[in-house]
Amino acid sequence: MMNEELINEEGAAVEETVAAAESEAPHLNGDGNVAEVSDGEVVDANAAEEAEVVIETAEETIARLESELAEARARANDAVDRMQRTAAEFQNTRKRQERLLQEGLERATQRLLTALLPVQDDFSLAFQNLPDTLTQEETAWVDGFKRIHDKLTGLLNEEGVKAIEHDGPFDPARHEAVTNEPSEEVESGHIIATLRTGYVLKDRVLRPALVRVAQ
Predict the structure, then answer these.
(1) How far apart are CA 170 and CA 194, in angstroms?
(2) Which positions ≥6 away from 134 have C-beta within 8 Å?
(3) pLDDT tens, 181-192?
């Protein structure tokens, strides 16, 4: 009886040892290849061999960096080009607005000066038709109006307004002929007399002169 008990105990110990060894041994897949166990997942040995780390050579690294640098430079050049076009468009817009503003001011000034010309005409006509004799009081009044006329003439001159010449050859761009008449004293095509003074503003005609022209 004691021998049988010893045999049974030894057999149980052997079975435990085999079970422990099998639990620690590598697993085999269906093809007989060893499958590794990692975190509860079984990985095929063939797949593990095929998963290789790709390492770039120095030449490949340099080529990749040069390609990335070229792309970065292209993007930078494109951004600079867009910025320069935007700046040029802004400058052109600003210059156009300044030109339009200047032209608007010049037109407004021209209209104002043209509106003052009839006042200048009235003063000139009044002084041309003064009576031959004036009292002292009347002379004082006339002198006062002459000073006003001089101020108006000075204002027009400061703005660049000048009278068109009253004699010389007829110029259709600066004169308007009221009559064409024969004259023994004035050469044909020349001005005999000016009926209304014309004016120019910086070489631009504000109002043509009304003249009589010799045939």
Answers:
(1) 11
(2) 142
(3) 998 889 999 999
pLDDT digits (tens, 9 = 90+) for 102-116: 999 989 999 999 999
Q: Annotate 136-196 with DSSP letters as a single string.
A: HHHHHHHHHHHHHHHHHHHHHHHTTEEEPPSSSB--TTTEEEEEEE--SSS-TTBEEEEEE
How far the first Cα of the chain sits from its last, in Å, is 169
Every domain of the chain and the residues it spans: 160-215
The residues near 142 (Cβ < 8 Å, ≥ 6 apart) are 127, 130, 134
- Sign for the CA dihedral angle at 116, 120, 121, 125 comes to positive
* Closest CA relative to residue 124, chosen from 148, 157, 140: 148
Question: 188 near 215, Cβ under 8 Å?
Answer: yes
Does the pTM of the predicted model rise above 0.85? no
- Beta bridge partners of residue 177, listed in sequence order: 211
Question: What superfamily would CATH give domain 160-215?
Answer: Head domain of nucleotide exchange factor GrpE (2.30.22.10)
β-sheet bridge partners, residue 181 = 214
